[in-house]
């Protein structure tokens, strides 16, 4: 009987998922910092060389902010999740998969902007960044969709609007990053980068959901 019960995917508590997620997010932030380096320069030219690599600082700011709010929202989610099933594990792994790769488009954007802030390569670079960021948002859509389908995965004390607000925020992010990528291609890459920097602020402010009207 016990063997028969173990044939299916067993639900489990969140301990291992949280520990693994925290490790991946910590590594993701570390990889972003590794993109900052001492620029080559002639004697007396360090100040100019440091200023010249402003795209690297901007990319680090945008991506660090994004990973930070992912960690914050991840923490807020797992305070409310009681047990994990296969679907929730899959959504969480997709989130970690995309987050771990964020250092790649960050470096691509920084290099392209430094070469030519308004060039075709910079436009492709911001589209790449926006695409990955949108995938990260869609992984949250999948996460909240699974919670909506299986509310028993949540603790009984969870507020009734939490999942609905989470899905709305995730869809809003996916659309906003997609729109930013389009603006970066059609208008100017720096417009997209400005959106990349601002959007994490939105997710920070709404980490507990949208305020309820009285």
UniProtKB/TrEMBL annotation:
Primary residence: membrane
Catalysis performed (reactions): K(+)(in) = K(+)(out)
Gene Ontology CC, one term: membrane
Any one GO molecular function term: proton channel activity
Key words of the record: Ion channel, Ion transport, Membrane, Potassium, Potassium channel, Potassium transport, Transmembrane, Transmembrane helix, Transport
Superkingdom of this protein's organism: Bacteria
Pfam family, one: TMEM175
InterPro entries: TMEM175-like
Topology within the bilayer: Multi-pass membrane protein
Residue spans crossing the bilayer: 20-37, 57-73, 93-113, 125-144, 174-205
UniProt key word rRNA-binding: no
Localization annotation: Membrane
Homology family: Belongs to the TMEM175 family.
Record protein name field: DUF1211 domain-containing membrane protein
């Amino acid at each position: 009987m016990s063997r028969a019960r173990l044939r299916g995917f067993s639900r489990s508590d969140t301990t291992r998922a949280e520990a693994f997620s925290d490790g991946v997010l910590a590594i993701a932030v570390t990889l972003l910092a590794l993109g900052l380096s001492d620029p080559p320069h002639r004697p007396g030219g360090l100040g100019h060389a440091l200023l010249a690599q402003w795209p690297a600082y901007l990319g680090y700011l945008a991506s660090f902010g994004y990973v930070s709010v992912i960690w914050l929202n991840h923490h807020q989610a797992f305070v409310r999740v009681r047990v994990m099933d296969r679907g929730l594990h899959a959504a969480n792994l997709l989130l970690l998969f995309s987050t771990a790769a964020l250092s790649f488009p960050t470096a691509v954007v920084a290099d392209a902007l430094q070469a030519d802030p308004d060039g075709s390569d910079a436009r492709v670079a911001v589209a790449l960044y926006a695409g990955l960021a949108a995938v990260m948002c869609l992984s949250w859509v999948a996460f909240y969709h699974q919670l909506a389908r299986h509310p028993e995965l949540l603790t009984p004390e969870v507020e009734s609007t939490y999942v609905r607000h989470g899905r709305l925020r995730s869809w809003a992010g996916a659309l906003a990053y997609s729109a930013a990528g389009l603006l970066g291609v059609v208008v100017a890459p720096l417009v997209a980068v400005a959106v990349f920097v601002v959007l994490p602020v939105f997710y920070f402010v709404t980490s507990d959901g949208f305020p309820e009207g009285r």
